[in-house]
Amino acid sequence: MSNENGQRLSIRHQARQFIKNEQVILSSLAVVIGGASGLAAVGFRHFIDIVQGFFYGFEGEKVTEGFSQLPWWQILLVPVVGGAIVGVFIRYFLPDGKPQGVPHVIEATALKGGRMSLKTGLRAAVASAFSIGVGASVGREGPVVHLGASIGAWLSKRLHLGYTLFRTLLGCGVAAAIATSFNAPIAGVFFALEVVVGHYAISAFAPIVIASVVGTIISRIYYGDFPAFILPNAMSLSSFWEFPAFALLGIVSALAAIAFMWAVIFTEDSFQKLKVPFWAKPMIGGLALGVMALVFPQVIGVGYEATDAALSENYELWLLLALIVVKTLATAVSLGSGFSGGVFSPSLFIGAMVGGAYGLIATSIFPELSSGTSAYTVIGMGAVAGAVLGAPISTILMIFELTNDYAMTIAVMIATSLSSVITQQVHGKSFFMWQLERRGVEIRGGREASLMRTLTISHMVHSVVSTIPPDADLATVRRELRKTKLGQLFVVDESGRLKGCISFVDLADGLDLQEEKGEPVTAIEIARTKAAQLEENANIEQALEAHGASGEVYIPVVNNSEDGILKGVIHEHDVALAYKKAMEQARAEERGEI
Question: Would the pTM of this model clear 0.85, i.e. be above it?
C-alpha cells in the first residue's frame, strides 16, 4: 500500500513539474498568441474591405474590374480625402506622428526588451487598413506583423515574463501573422526567427512553430486551404541548363530591389522638404496615386490581383515593364507622403513583373529551354522580396510552400541568394534596417550589443573616491595623491560638480608650470578638464567605448551631463566582466539553455 501511495505521489510530483516547465508554459501561451494573432489578421483584412466598400463601393482584391465601373473623379478624389484622414490620424494617435511597422518590432526586440504597446499596435493597424482601403499602394503583411507582435508583447507584459520569454512570445505573434496572411506556416516560423528573434534555438523554435500552425489553421478555416497566390497547375523546370538564366534573373531582381528602395528614400526626403501642413502631404500623395490609377489601376492597394495575372501570363511585355515602374513610384509616393503600410506585397508585385518580363524575353530567345514565363515570375517574386526584406530564407521557404516543387525552389534559392548579396553590397542593408537607420536607431552586434545597451553601469560605480577643491595648492595635491588608491584625484567644487581629474603625470606637469610661472599653481589649473566621463545611466557598451578611447583604468561617473555631480568611478575590470557575462548570456540563449 505504501508503494502505491509513493507511486501516486511521484506521479503527482512529475505532473506538477511538467505543468510548471517553462517549455510547457511557452507552448500553451503560443497557442493563445497564435490564435489571437490569426484572428487579428483576419479582422485586419475585413476592416480593409469595409473601408474599401465605403469609399469605392466594392470589396475584395479585384481592383481593376472594380475601377472600370467607377467615374474618373471618384478614382481621383478618394485617395486625396483618405490621405487627409490618414494624415490627421497618424499625427495625433501614433507615437511621434509616424506610421508603425516591422522596423519598430525589430527595434523593440533588439533594444527595448521586447516591450511594445498594444494600444499603439491597434492604432497602427487601423491607420494601415484605412490607408490600403482608400488606395495606398502598400502591403498588408507588415502591419499584421506589427499587430501580432504587439499582442505577444502585451501578454508577456501582463504575465511579467523575462526578456527571453518576452522575445519568444513576440516572435510567436509575428509567425502567426505571416502564416495567416500567406497560408504558409513554415515561412511564418522562419520569418519570425530570421527577422525578429535573431536565432534558431529550440527554446524559441518550438513555441513559434506552434503559434504559426495555429495561425495557419485559422487561415484555412476562414479562407480555405488555398495559397495566397493563384499558381498555374503545370509549372516545373525544363532543364538544368536554365540555371545561368536564373542567376541572371537574380542580378536583374537586385537592380529592381535597389531601385525600389532608393525610390522610397528619394520620395520620403522630397516630402519632408515640402513646407505644407502634415495632413496635406498624404493628400498630395493621394492625388498622385489617383492620377496613376486612372491609367494603371493595378497599382492600387496590395496588388494581389495583378500578381496573379502575371503568374497566369495574362500581361504583355510592355504592361509588365510599365507596371514595374509605376508600382515602384506608387509605393514610394504612398510611403514617402505618409500613408501607413508594409512593403512585402509591393516587393512581391514588382518581383512578379520583373520575373514575368524577364521570362517573356528569355522564352523568346531560348523557347526549347524555357520552363515558361510563370516559372520566372515566381522566381522573380522571391528574388526581389528576399532582397528588399533582408529575409532570403523565409522568402525561399514561402515560395516552396506556394509551389511544392523542389526543383523550382532550387532556382528560387539561386536567384534570391544572388539578389540578396548584391543588394547588401550595393545598398548596404535591407529596407527595414534602412528605415531604422533613418530614424537614428542603430541595430548592430545582434543580441550581444542589445544586452550591453540594456545593462547600465549604475550598480558598478565605486562611490569612494578622493576629491580635492579647485583652489588647492600643489602640495595638497601631492599629499592627497599619495594617499589615494586610485592613483587619481577628482577636482570638485563646493556643490560636488566634477571639474577635472589629476594624476601623477598631471602633478609633474603642474610642478614644471609652477616653476616657469614663479608663482603658486592651483589644482584646477593642472587638472584635465576634458577627461572622459560617463553618466550613471550609461550602458556597458558606452563604458567600453569610453575606456577604449581614453585608455583610463578609472573613469569618473556623474549624475547627468547638465549637473555633473560626481557619483564615483567605474573600473575597466568591472566593465570587462559585465561584458563577458553578457556574451555568456547571449550564447546561452542561442543554445536554448535559458
Answer: no
